[in-house]
Amino acid sequence: MAGAGHIAGLTTAREAGLIACHRCGQVHDQQATECRRCHATLHSRKPDSLQKVWAWWLAGVITFIPANIYPMLITNTLVENSESTIIGGVVELIHYGSYGIAFIVFVASIIIPLGKFFAIAYLAISVQRRSNLNQHQRNHLFHVVEFIGRWSMIDVFVVAILSALVQLDTVASINPGIAAVNFALSVVFTMLSAQSFDPRLIWDADRAAAND
Amino acid sequence: METRQQTPYIGITVAIGGQLMLPLENLVACPQCDTLHAQTDVPDGAKAHCMRCGAAMVETRSTAITNVLSLALTSFVLMIAAVSFPFLDLSIGGQTNGTSVLGAVMAFSDTFSLPLAFAVAGFIVFLPLLRLGAIIAAVLPLVTHRTPGRFHRHAFGLAETLRPWSMAEIFIVGVSVALVKVAGLATISFGPAFWAFTLLVILTFFQDTLICRYSVWRALDTSRA
Ligand SMILES: [Zn+2]
Ligand SMILES: [Zn+2]
């Protein structure tokens, strides 16, 4: 069971000339276009998977740049007016001594998005190169990326609740900066990129190798 | 309850030399690697894994569907409460300002960020509500022993598609972070909506771990009967 490779006796739906529904797993013959169980459109593999992965990936990377340059929060108090970026917000939390929360925000807003960009690029490139190494690890990586990506949205919600709550005109007010929009877009684009990836492609590589 | 076995699906003799050995109805494909397996009944509480990639393919829980319905109904009511009641109040030096959940959404109602207001409203209120409604619609015929139709299968499909986009639990973590940020400067009081929302998040977590999507799909499948 361990390691990569072709296990004798196992057949994929595609090799058997069948199409499995991506949503519910129901198996159909090749002529079917709609799943007879859940009515989803049937494809043996997600159509144009890698092109879509790269298109959304690029959009995610591009919007991530202004998300880190422009202010996320604009704070006005009696004594000062300040603007803080994502990193600025983390530094501020460290100043207050809230190390745990600073860590959560740092991981959710910086580590997870960057990690996702690298992970998705690695998965897409390894599939394009028809690599059959580390299939189990890559499959696992894909599911981690898919599961964890949405948690990056934390900072957008932090901005939303702070801006709604801190509106005391004479004492203090907090308003969202333009980076909030860029950041939210970046998270959504990266989620779409991960969703466009078809994990079956990871496992197709050793089929191709075995048939050579 | 701790007698959970791990039974692999029978996968070896599904096909020989591209020739299928079983009728289509008895086949199931792994959602991750497309490997065909013979559909077998798994004992209650057991898990069946893909022989090739190890993905969990079936987890049976006999009481699942009734529980799923009651959790979804409760969560639906809690979400209505969470958007109707006051959420949080903040006061600094005698000045007070309160917000509801929708108030947090409206924080992005400036012209440049208006699309974000709609997106946040979707992520934390409308998509979770739509998803709960879809789950209720899908499992209702199963609980009342009526024959499910095309509509019910579409509803469950919609609930599955919406799963990554309903972010109520992420919102509540965001709220906690925001509260830590203002804790030193202001006094915060929690409204009923805060507790309703927190409870909703806990129930959603149970809902998602409890639901056996394969059993629901099989129960909704009337074509094989
Ligand atoms: Zn289907
Ligand atoms: Zn598999």
How do you describe this structure in short?
Chain A is of the alpha+beta class and 212 residues long. Chain A is built from seven helices and six strands. The N terminus of chain A is likely disordered.
Explain this structure to me?
The complex is a heterodimer of chains A (212) and B (225). With 212 residues, chain A is α+β, with helices and mostly antiparallel strands. Chain A has seven helices and six strands. In chain A, α1 runs antiparallel to α3, α1 packs antiparallel against α6 and α3 packs across α4. Chain A is elongated and about 70 Å long. The model of chain A is unreliable at 1-5 (pLDDT under 50). By secondary structure, chain B is α+β, with helices and mostly antiparallel strands. Chain B has two domains: 2-59, no CATH class; 64-223, Butyryl-CoA Dehydrogenase, subunit A, domain 3, CATH 1.20.140. Chain B is 50% helix and 15% strand. In chain B, the strands form four sheets. Chain B has a three-stranded mixed sheet with strand order 1-6-7. In chain B, α1 (64-84) packs antiparallel against α3, α1 (64-84) runs antiparallel to α6 (192-210) and α3 (114-143) crosses α4. Chain B is elongated and about 75 Å long. The model of chain B is unreliable at 1-8 (pLDDT under 50). Chains A and B meet through β2, α3, α4, α5 and β5 of A and β4, β8, β9, α2 and α3 of B. One zinc ion binds at residues 30, 32-33, 35, 50, 52-53, 55 of chain B.
